[in-house]
Amino acid sequence: MHSLLAIFTLIFTASTLQLPPALALTSCRTSCGSIDIRYPFGVDDGCGAPQFRGMFNCSSDLFFTTPSGSYKVQHIDYDKKTMVVYDPAMSTCSILQPHHDFVMTEIQSFIIRPTPDTVFALLNCSIDSPVLNHYKNLCFNFSEHSCDELYGSCNAFRVFHLLTNSSPPCCFTGYDTVKFMSMNILDCSHYTTVINVDNLKGIGPLDWVYGIKLSFSVPDAGCERCSLSGGTCGFDTETEGMVCLCSASTNATRECGSVTAGDGSNNFPWKFCYALVLISSVLMILLCN
What is the top-level taxon of the source organism (predicted)? Predict the structure, then answer.
């Protein structure tokens, strides 16, 4: 009688056991260098949102990749949904490098485009440049700064003034200009990009912050539910449908604590499993006695 009572007690205990929340033990890296990697971004295939698939790579630092090159990620603000990148091959106030274009894919231009407070300064333009003639409305006043200021203050750009003994035309413009016209069409030899331009009135080029600030959108895929269950948001690499990554080998459709059939996980009832183990242990003890 005491043995049967012990068995029923163990069964009841097993049926009330609660599993601890699933741990995020996925193969998705959560950082690269000093940069945190969170949804919607990912550097491992199947991690993050599929819209950003293949846009990032991690060596010693995190790089954002476009058709025109790899741009070092300097900062990501997940609350403001902005990211600052720097082009290692771009000219700045202190270094002049061979010119090249800044090119993004159509999907990149749509979901992670440069912010309005990022200005592209087109330098050493010819007098025949379209932005100085038919498309001169594409150039705008940038916090009361001028071409003369750039050529006079920056060692790197002073060479343009020395070669022509004058200040060649330049143009302060937005991303859409360089999106639709290459540097060859614009007929300007170099460009540089400056961010946070709304705060640069009265501040000289030597103290500008050079780089490109991008604003990204976050797909609403129900990731909060997945994260609260201990999982990491990712996607199926074949269908690109959203999945909740619960471990290196286990996925769920929405959350790790509620796995449904077809997610590639073990669907056997855990509480029933624990009850069987406990019953077997008690029976073994009874048989041995």
Answer: Eukaryota
Are 188 and 241 in contact by the 8 Å Cβ rule? The answer is no
Question: What mean pLDDT is reported for the chain?
Answer: 81
CA nearest neighbour of 97 among 127, 123, 115, 130:
123
Distance CA 100, CA 90 (A): 8
Q: Identify whether the C-beta of residue 173 lies closer than 8 Å to the C-beta of residue 138.
A: yes
User: Contact at 8 Å (CB) between 176 and 109?
Assistant: no
Q: Which class for 128: exposed (0-12), middle (13-18), buried (19 or more C-beta within 10 A)?
A: exposed
Please answer whether residues 65 and 55 qualify as being in contact, where contact means their C-beta atoms are separated by less than 8 angstroms: yes
DSSP 199: G
Give me the count of residues in the chain: 289
Look at strands 82-86 and 69-77 and give their pairing: antiparallel
Q: The tokens 């159509």 sit on which residue?
A: 106
Segment 194-221 shows an average pLDDT of: 90
Quick one: average pLDDT of 244-269?
60
Q: Measured on CA atoms in the order 80, 23, 264, 259, is the torsion positive or negative?
A: negative
- What is the per-residue pLDDT for 129? 95
270, pLDDT greater than 90: no
Helix 2-15 vs helix 270-288: angle between axes, to the nearest 10 degrees? 160
- What CA–CA distance (Å, rounded) separates 254 from 212? 35
Bridge-based pairing state of the strands 118-125 and 188-195:
antiparallel
Residue 118, pLDDT above cutoff 90:
yes
**Cross-strand bridge partners of residue 102:** none
pTM of the model: 0.76
